[in-house]
Amino acid sequence: MSQLTVFLQRTITALLWLGGAVAFFRWLLAPLLPFLLALALSAMVEPLVQRLRRWMRVRRAFAAGLVTTLLLLVLGGGAALALARLTMELRQWSDRLPRLIAGFPDMWNGLLDQIEVWYASSPTLLRSALDLLAEQLMEEGPSLAGAAGTWLMGEVSSLLAALPDVGLFLVTTVLAVYFTSLSYPAILAFLKRQLPQTWQVKCRSAARCFRSTILKWLRAELLLILATFVVLLLGFLWMRLDFALLAAVFIALVDALPVLGTGTVLFPWAAGCFLTGNTQRGLSLLTLYAVGLIVHTLLEPRLLAGQADLPPITALLAMYLGFHFMGVGGMILLPIVLLLLKQFQDAGVIHLWK
Q1: If 0-12 CB within 10 Å is exposed, 13-18 middle and 19+ buried, where does residue 221 land?
Q2: Burial class for 225, CB neighbours closer than 10 Å (0-12, 13-18, 19+)
Q3: Residue 225, SS3?
């Protein structure tokens, strides 16, 4: 075969894989997610089920039911406590939002006064540009704040309207976890029988690669996110910040996105505090960023040692394409898919590029 033919074959194969991944995450992931989560959780608890069966000499149904119940109680209890706290903070925040929007013009004028003090010693050319910018912001600032508040309230209303669907999702997931854990070996044997012999070999290699690399990488990332969240939450509580849990969750999720970090939120927040005269809070936010950076720097080499990561430009491209095709969730899912393909390529399971 000529080099052009090989190139075309590899390109078409890569596009088919990418198109299949996009189609799966856009149209199939949502309806299949409860059952995929059930399969993943069943795989996680299977070693415990086997140990419990050998230790207590009981049937699989009893061991799987007991281990699954304990797992769901731990996960559900933690989620319920966090959800209760988030609900309380969201309710308090929504009660304060109209007052904050009403006081925005006064805050905006105070900010402009601080800017005037700063630019008093600026060159004449810079002053004229700042005057033009300040005039435009004074005209559009309150309307933008009102639009932002309206958008946020609409998002909260949409979230509340989606609660019945969330409840159905949770009930389906819980039932699927029980049923999957009870019949986990039979389900794996059924899935194995549906594949040709050559595919079974590749799937075993892919499963080993997945367990040895992707699961370790996901676990490391989750631990880093948890560490970032704990540092942020403790810092916000020390600062006596309102809605500390809500702010810590939001910034930790931003930090979880590839390329982005806590500075994406903390730096503009600190700059706004300095401009409005709240120097102490601005310094506290910068200190919190430094502490979080130190913790992240110390933990990342140990948690991600030996784990291949995506180049920054590839991660940025995956984030953009994921957001374009699948929304915010795609910004997280598509980089993971590309990382998985890279690991399979390195392990020889697939051959998409040289």
Answers
A1: middle
A2: middle
A3: helix
To the nearest 10°, the Cα dihedral for 225, 228, 230, 231? 180
pLDDT of residue 74: 86
Q: What is the pLDDT of residue 111?
A: 65
| CA–CA separation, 6 and 12 (whole Å) | 10
**Residue 301 has what pLDDT?**
64
Which pLDDT does position 306 carry in this prediction?
A: 47
What integer is the mean pLDDT of 244-262? 77
Q: Which amino acid is at 290?
A: A
Q: And the tokens for 129?
A: 């540009």
Distance CA 336, CA 314 (A): 11
pTM: 0.57
Dist CA 156 CA 94 (whole Å): 9
The widest CA-to-CA distance across the chain, in whole angstroms, is 86
Residue 12's contacts (CB-CB under 8 Å, 6 or more residues apart) are none
Q: What angle do CA 327, 332, 334 make, to 5 degrees?
A: 85
Question: Is the pLDDT score of 211 beyond 70?
Answer: no
Closest CA to 264 of 279, 244, 282, 250: 250
Residues in the chain: 354
| Three-state DSSP state, 243 | coil
Q: Dump pLDDT digits (tens) for 164-183.
A: 888 888 889 888 988 998 88
Q: How many CA atoms lie within 13 A of 140 on its CB side?
A: 6
What CA–CA distance (Å, rounded) separates 210 from 349?
Answer: 11
**135, exposed or middle or buried, with CB in 10 Å at 0-12, 13-18, 19+?**
exposed
Using the predicted structure, report yes or no on whether residue 123 has a pLDDT greater than 80: no
At 303, which amino acid appears? Answer: L
Instruction: Note the pLDDT of residue 24.
Output: 75
